[in-house]
Amino acid sequence: MSDKRKNIEFIDESQERRELKKAGTLKGLLAGSLLTKEKVVRQLPFILFLTGLAFIYIGNRYHAEKLVRENSRLQDEVRELRARALSTSAELMHLSKQSEVLHLLKEKNMGLRESVTPPRKIVVEEKE
Known about the structure:
Layout: H1 2-9, H2 13-23, H3 26-31, H4 38-42, H5 44-95, H6 98-107
């Protein structure tokens, strides 16, 4: 038993290389031996930092895509409302013509007639 201990203390380089190769494979990753290596443990804060940056980057991309879709939807809505405002304005201009107003009054039999005298301006003088 003491011979085995002595052999364990002095591991030859070929066995160490085999262990390193074994740790670098997928099997080593799944077994966890790769994650326990000193080099990986020292780099763990940097790896966690990069992982955090990746999450932030992905979240930022989703947020930007959401904003682009919202912007597109709002632009479509503005175009639709602008077209509706133009058509309403044109209809109002058509209905407010003197001839159209007379036509509507005759159509609804309201008993109103067109004034034949022109309008006059009323001037009020101020008292001191």
